[in-house]
Amino acid sequence: MVNCCGLVTVKNEQVPLKSIAVEVSVQGHVATVSSTLQYENQEQSPLEAIFVFPLPGEAAVCRFSAKIGQTEVVAEVQEKQKAQEQYDDALSSGQQAFLLEESDESPDVFKLSVGSLPPGEKASVSLDYVTELAVQADDGLRLCLPAVLNPRYQPQGSDSGSGGSAQVSSVPAGSVPYSLSLSAHVSSPHPISRVESNCPLDPLNYLNTEKTQATVSLAAGHQFDRDVELLLYYQDTHQPTAIVEAAQASAKPGSLMGDPVVMLSLYPEFPKDVMSSMTSHGEFLFVVDRSGSMECPMHLGSGSQDRIGSARDTLLLLLKSLPMGCYFNIIGFGSSYESFFSKSVEYSQKTLDEALQKVKEMRADMGGTEILQPLKHIYSQPCLPDQPRQLFLFTDGEVGNTKEVLDLVKTNAGSHRCFSFGIGEGASTALISGVAQQATGHAQFITGQDRMQPKAMQSLRFALQPAVVDISVKWNVPKEVSVTPLSPPIRVLFQGQRALLYAQLTGESSGDTEGSVTVKYSLAKQPVENQLSFILKPAEDTG
Asked: Backbone phi, then psi, for 510, in 5-degree steps?
């Protein structure tokens, strides 16, 4: 098990790092990070080395190359087994070889064997990945460098066991044996207001008068005592944007990389008066998995709460937080299902006390996980007038008929929203995320005691607030050009959520060089419409 990252030997010891150079290219809401790391074998004997790269969850590696001495190898994507055989063959015949693979345990770790590094020889490793930037509460877009590209420096002899990071910051300048240079090129359809960082930056340098392109660099002398994060702020950040990226010259037209791709960003603004109109209406249906598997502990290890206990705690919190004037009911299911009340009741102190008492007595004693029947029962009940139906589903997600469940939820998506809670480690993401996606709600995963409360309250806030609905996207391009969506359509956006939609542009127009897209949606019953134009064929290779 490799727990170090960067270039390590087969015995899991770090190969000395000399320098890191990172170039970031940002297009609107997406960044491409290109990095080059220089290492040196300071041992007397050759080292068999492995490059380990924990990938940020929303990132994809798009290029990898490594150079030992004068030999450069560029990685190509291959089926795992075949790649392993080729690598073993090359090594046994004394050639340098590289093998890049996603780790079996976790899809977010890339391991690359770089083969044999002779004594005193330098190795340079180049890696490019592309990632969507996370939106922060203050509308900034955040890019954080992973640990490989910003390793914490622990001076010799400092006690790394007891919160060693406290002493890291007192490293005298110049004593860190490696260096980091980072430069970023930012381009956006809207002007760039500012770039901030938790590390010292050189001043922002605008490349044009519209301020839509700029460069910024990390100031020299980075101490490796903290994460490097960049926060980008654009003007008119809530206006949608469309950016086209050119096809790769080497790829053949008709393939994914061989045709241009357009990215549409939607990050709607929710005016204060809309947000203050939090609804106090709603029919809240809490559907709780009481099958035998819910008796299992939340995670491996001693002292772990059982899943039904976690579901009970989450449910008690939600029940106490409902708005007066709404309606609610609780349905437990296993091999069969049972409701607390014969139909949804008005939320009052009396009905709340009655429900709280019943929830406290709830056990995982209902056999198998038959989720289809209770859902069919709910959908057969008429919706209450002016009380939008909100379904809260709690399950450890161990069902065999996920597709059937998702199809049923999708068929009834027009009549309700679904907020799902995956309870315990290993809850099925296909089921939990799937039902929320089909019924335009939100999925949460609760794996331990610590994060339950904010997650439950976030979902309840989403359920009570107005959302952007009736989203439609219409592409207007010359008749020789066709647009193929690469992203599933979006049906709802909550406050603070951003959606990126990708589409491929195929074919070429002789006359027109522009296309446009019309985005319509409604918020608090008010229609909003935006039209954006974009260039069908960007001039330079944009990455």
From this structure: -75, -40
Question: Which is it for strands 241-245 and 229-234: parallel, antiparallel or unpaired?
Answer: unpaired
Name residues whose C-beta falls within 8 Å of residue 350's C-beta, 6 or more positions apart in sequence.
none
The token pair at 159 is 């006690």
Instruction: Please report which helix (H) or strand (E) contains residue 203, including its range.
Output: none
Residue that wins the pLDDT comparison between 116 and 475: 475
Torsion sign across C-alpha atoms 306, 312, 315, 320 = negative
Closest among 248, 206, 151 to 504, alpha carbons compared: 248
- pLDDT at residue 165 in the model: 33
C-alpha to C-alpha distance for 447 and 423, rounded to whole angstroms: 6
Residue 339 exposure: Cα atoms within 13 Å on the Cβ side: 14
pLDDT, tens digit, for every residue of 22-62? 999 999 999 999 999 999 999 898 888 888 887 665 678 88
pLDDT digits (tens, 9 = 90+) for 129-161: 999 898 887 889 989 888 788 887 765 554 444
Map tokens 């708005």 to a residue: 323
303 alpha-carbon distance from chain centroid? 30
Instruction: Tell me the backbone φ, ψ of residue 79, rounded to 5 degrees.
Output: -65, 140
Q: How far is CA 310 from CA 256, 314, 322, 353, 445, in A?
A: 44, 6, 19, 20, 11
* Cα–Cα distance measured from residue 25 to residue 91, given in angstroms and rounded to the nearest whole number: 36
Distance CA 243, CA 489 (A): 18
Q: Which two tokens stand for residue 438?
A: 């089909």
